[in-house]
Structures are given as C-alpha cells and as structure tokens.
Design a protein that fits this description.
Length: 469
C-alpha cells in the first residue's frame, strides 16, 4: 500500500532499549540470589558464561546515566525471581527488593520509563528440582512472586511483561541451555509446562490489575509472519500451520482465554494435549492483557511437509535451532531477503507484515520489546563503526512507521540491546548493544562502556521523534 503521506511516530512514543538480567547483570550468586536454571544449565564451553556478564548489577548507575544520555524514554529489563524470592516460594529477599527499587528510582530520575519483565528464562533452580514448570505448584509460586513484585514496585512501574518468549522456551528449549546430562524434556512434557505457564500468566495479569490500578501488563512473545515458499496451496497451508503453532497459539491463550483450535487439534492428534483441570478455562478467561509485547528479529519461509524425517533441519549458521517438523512444515529459503552472519533472516517488510497481523488479530496496542542485529562488533581506536546496525534499525523503524501509517497502534520500540550482553548461546562474539562492553569471551578487562556509532545515530532518532526515518 502506498500513501501520500506517512504518519509520524506518536507523541510520547516509548523510545527504549532492552536487556535481560541473566545476560547483563552478572553477580550470579550475590546479595542472597539463588541459582536459576540458567546458572545450572550446560552452555557451550567456548563462550562466556553468565557469572559476570556485563556487570550491570554493579554498574547500573553508570549504565542508566548513559541510557539517559542516549535519550531513552524507556528501559526494558528483567527482574530475576531468584533475587526476590531465592527459595522459589517463601521469604522475600530485602537486598533484592532494595536493588530494584534503586534501579527503578534511577530510571525515574532521568525520566526513563521502567518496563519490567517478570520472567526471562530464569526459573529458580530449587523449583526446577521439584519438577519446574511441569509441576502445577509452580503456578502458585509464580503468583506469589508476582505479588511480591506488585507489592514492592507496583506504585513505580506501569509496564509489566509477564513471560519472555514462552514460545521459544517451548518450541526450542535447547536454545536457552541444556539441563545437566543434556536431556531436554519431551514434547508432551513441554506442552504441560506451557499450560502451567499460561495459567501462571493469567493469574498474574489478574493480580496486577487488582493490585496496581495504573499497571499495564502483557505477554512478550517472539512473533513473526510466515511466507509460503511458493503459490502452491500446500505451501500456504504449511505456512499457516507453523504460524499458528509457533505464534498465534501463544498469544490466543492470554487474549482469548483458550488455545487456537488448530493448535489444540494438533496437540490432541499427537497425544501432546496437556492435562487440564476443571477450573483452568475460567482461570485463562479471567484476565486479558493490556497490550501485546513483541520481539521481532526475522521472518521464516515455509514449504509443505514431505511427511518424513527430512522435514527437520538445522538453521543455517545456528545449529542450536532446529526448524521443521515431520508432518507439519519444512523450512525453505527465501531468495528475496538477506541474512545475518548467524543465519537470521533480515526482513524489515516482514516486520510491517507481522505488525499488521498481530494488530488485526488482537486489536491491542503493541510494544516492541526486542529487535536488533547480532554482529561480531570490533573496537578500533576506541570506536565501534557498526553501520550495519544503523542500517538494520533504520529499516526496521521505517517499517514501524509504515505499520503505524497502516493503522497499527505501536506505542514503543525497545531494541535489543541497550548495551552488549552475553548472547543466549554465542557469548560476546555476537553483540547487539548501542554501548560496547569492552571485555572478551574470557578476559574481563575493565568492561569499559564505549559508545558505538549506532549510539549517536539512535540518539538523534530519539531527539527528532523519528522524524527523518
Ligand atoms: C531473544 C531473547 O530471543 O533473542 C534474548 O529474548 C536473546 O534473550 C535475543 O538474547 C537474541 O538472541 P541471541 O541468541 O542472539 O542472544
């Protein structure tokens, strides 16, 4: 669709940036924090672990000052359950509360809106030992944790994100790390975990609305539109299969209160349907989100399944992610898009297309909580020339502007990442930040923060409310 004039970014647009606690903070066992599953999982030995990360836990004041200089209007970060209730359930840790009160105060001091993720992959390990998300008791434990967050931070935080990328955790559990011994849960177990997360999410959304009158809460999912590999009807059906199973099913439950019908049929047919108790439908229908938070990196292109094991293949450039499912879909190449060094498709138009679909489906305002390009940035003479990041973000912001012109309500953009953090499984060789953190995979150096070229560019974007995009 072409327009005579593009709409401007709305006044008050939340120009932001994101991190997650375990990837940025370090201090993995300080101030009463207990280990999370991330701390106990096996990760590739050739990359940095999460023990020190970017030392954001100790340097948050310096970092937030730099975010203010960047001009951020919002900072999306996660609070780890393990710092707030180290035992998973039970007593609250005063040091954990004090730390995040201070982080939030620091943001507010500069007029930065804190956007808080309640759960970013980091279940307390003590709960994992009792069955983790597979154990229905974890639902109540999460509600208890939510109650602690709303009690201590509810008056200072407006935007809450329940669970980050539940779809990634369920569909690609290996991407987050491998449990000791390397054995991942079965699909049946994963869909039971998923059901419990859905219940936990619905309960904390309800609780947030009860406890925080000004609070707004929503799920943060990795959403992406799918293209059929050809105009063959079978390819279109396969693309729809995967779009439903990968994306819509995870957002339909919080918004509509029950599973997408196609996804439920898939689960039933394969013996993967979770055990559901009588009260569950009422719980899921008892709360709705105020917005959809969306992480967008790339699109996928899908061909019809051949119905055999060849449907499954590893993503080029990232062997940790397996694509395709026998009898459902297979991954295909798209000649119209380029890729990052790690095989992630670069597709700004796909961003606009995904935003249209999300808004058309849910009619809820959208907050972009992740988007960005991972690259092996190089520091030379104290400078980082990341023109590829500027191009990536410029094109994706232009796509948002087109989507806004299309009528989609987008109220903020928090790209990944505010500063360099440890990648989920590629260490510091894959960086995303506006601020370079000067450390190597194993040599921590002084971890000096260095403003990349993209920092100065994004600063100007924010200053002008995106006018020149
Ligand atoms: C998202 C996650 O899936 O992608 C982040 O929410 C993650 O935690 C980001 O870091 C980029 O992925 P990666 O594997 O390149 O670090």
């Amino acid at each position: 669709m072409q327009y005579s004039e593009l709409k401007a970014f709305p006044t008050g647009f939340l120009w932001g940036a994101s991190t997650s606690a375990y990837q940025a903070e370090g201090a993995w066992d300080e101030d009463g924090k207990s280990p999370s599953i991330i701390d106990q999982y096996e990760h590739p030995k050739e990359y940095a672990d999460f023990k020190v990360a970017s030392d954001h836990y100790h340097r948050y004041k310096e970092d937030i000052r730099l975010f203010a200089e960047l001009g951020l209007k919002a900072y999306r970060f996660s609070i780890p359950w393990t710092r707030i209730i180290p035992g998973g359930t039970g007593p609250v840790n005063p040091a954990g509360i004090a730390h995040y009160q201070d982080v939030i105060r620091e943001c507010r001091r500069y007029g930065i809106e804190p956007v808080v993720t309640m759960y970013h992959f980091d279940l307390p390990y003590c709960l994992e030992e009792k069955g983790g998300w597979g154990n229905r008791k974890t639902v109540q434990a999460f509600v208890e944790y939510g109650k602690a967050l709303f009690t201590h931070f509810g008056s200072e935080v407006t935007y809450w994100l329940t669970i980050n990328e539940q779809n990634t955790m369920i569909l690609h559990p290996g991407a987050i790390g491998l449990p000791a011994g390397g054995k991942l849960p079965s699909k049946k177990e994963l869909y039971q975990q998923n059901h419990h997360m859905m219940l936990a999410q619905a309960k904390v959304m309800k609780l947030c609305h009860e406890m925080c009158p000004q609070g707004k809460i929503g799920p943060a999912l990795n959403l992406t539109a799918m293209y059929p590999a050809s105009s063959s009807p079978e390819d279109s059906i396969a693309a729809h299969n995967w779009e439903v199973l990968r994306c819509w099913n995870f957002a339909d439950v919080p918004v509509f209160g029950w599973y997408h019908p196609l996804a439920w049929r898939y689960l039933e047919d394969r013996g993967l349907a979770p055990e559901v108790e009588e009260e569950d439908r009422a719980i899921l229908q008892g709360a709705t989100p105020d917005f959809i938070a969306m992480n967008y990196y790339s699109t996928a292109t899908i061909a019809a399944s051949r119905g055999d094991a060849s449907d499954v293949s590893a993503r080029a450039g990232d062997q940790q992610i397996m694509l395709g499912e026998e009898g459902v879909y297979r991954a295909a190449e798209n000649p119209f898009v380029s890729k990052t060094k790690y095989g992630w498709v670069i597709d700004p138009s796909g961003f606009r297309y995904t935003l249209r679909k999300v808004y058309e489906r849910y009619h809820l305002p959208v907050l972009i909580t992740e988007n960005g390009i991972g690259a092996p940035d190089v520091i030379e003479d104290g400078q980082v020339h990341d023109d590829y990041r500027i191009a990536f973000i410029r094109d994706h912001l232009h796509a948002i502007r087109l989507a806004i012109t299309d009528g989609v309500e987008v109220f903020g953009y928090c790209p990944w990442a505010a500063l360099d953090v440890v990648s989920t499984h590629q260490g510091y060789q894959k960086r995303y930040g506006f601020l370079y953190v000067d450390r190597d995979e194993f040599d921590l150096k002084e971890m000096k923060r260095v403003k990349k070229d993209s920092f100065f560019w994004y600063q100007k974007v924010i200053e002008e409310n995106g006018a020149f995009l």
